[in-house]
Amino acid sequence: MTKQTLPRLAITAGEPAGIGPDLCILQASQPRDAQLVVIADPSLLEQRGRQLKVDVKITPFEPDAPRRLSQPGEIQVMPVTLAAACTAGQLDSNNSAYVLETLTLAVNGCQSGLFDAMVTAPVHKGVINESGIPFSGHTELLAELTQTPRVVMMLATDGLRVALATTHLPLAKVPEAITEPLLEEVISILHNDLQQKFGVSSPHILVAGLNPHAGEDGHLGREEIEIIEPVLTRMRDQGMNLSGPLPADTLFNPGRLEKADAVLAMYHDQGLPVLKYKGFSEAVNVTLGLPIIRTSVDHGTALDLAGTGLANCGSLNTAIRYALSMIQSA
Ligand SMILES: NC(=O)c1ccc[n+]([C@@H]2O[C@H](COP(=O)([O-])OP(=O)(O)OC[C@H]3O[C@@H](n4cnc5c(N)ncnc54)[C@H](O)[C@@H]3O)[C@@H](O)[C@H]2O)c1
Ligand SMILES: N[C@H](C(=O)O)[C@H](O)COP(=O)(O)O
Question: Which residues are noted in the entry as a divalent metal cation-binding (predicted)?
Fold first, then answer.
């Protein structure tokens, strides 16, 4: 794509019983400087539009036609058919393969150049597993589909970026997963993507310890001394600006964050509660290290809100904005 071409984004509508279809409908009223193509079952969008009492015009996406903006209220759809009728708020594992097909089409489209980026609405990890398909998250699936050995989950909101060393892993498995090779790869990806995709010339990264008080000099755990600190020392020698391992409970203070470009947390619930407390429903989830551009919402399927019209589009809008900005930086 040349930078003059109209950018084209794929938006996967996610779990059909969740708020993903609602968000795809609600966002269509906004003017965009890009062609947005929703990958979903068109009849689901029509049905949810009626439920929300929002007039939407569903038109088939024409991959071979020149790129074009949607008219206000129009949704261009790449169709995938649901396996079972869907009721807002009611999960049905029969539709899990449908959800994964929307993601596979988006990835294939990004790899072939049909799309410049993909933006994902939320999926429900539990129901996909209940259908018999092992699934821990988009992040891991996209790594697999693009054959990328290591990717990094990073969530961002105004004034705070939080990346994770481990993602959707049971807490009991986290300590054994924190190894020197893993940390080296994660820090390299984070450092490089901050430079290349976010324009941070010399990123300062705050690295959390794993244990309370970063191990308290080895009295509350030794991973900081034996694993994290040696990696940080080596990577500082390569010129990276890394602080840590820092106690996670005092790392997130405004004075420290002001002087940093990102935080690296060791596990999901060490970093994301802080990020979501600060920016929930306006933040973005970005997968770093992928050969394609992928952004996502910061929230889940909110089954309680599906079909009510109360779902907030803020995070989807941020995810679209980030994807467009990353296309410009590519
Ligand atoms: N990007 C993703 O695919 C993604 C992200 C997070 C969670 N999930 C999945 O979503 C499912 C439900 O997770 P959960 O219940 O922990 O989180 P959730 O985000 O679905 O809901 C948490 C609370 O936030 C509210 N909420 C969420 N999104 C909102 C929005 N856009 N506007 C207004 N209110 C909103 C919900 O009503 C609920 O009260 C799980 O299967 C989880 O794994 C998926
Ligand atoms: N960990 C993410 C969050 O809390 O927002 C969420 O589960 C989505 O992750 P994927 O993008 O890997 O599905």
Answer: 168, 213, 268
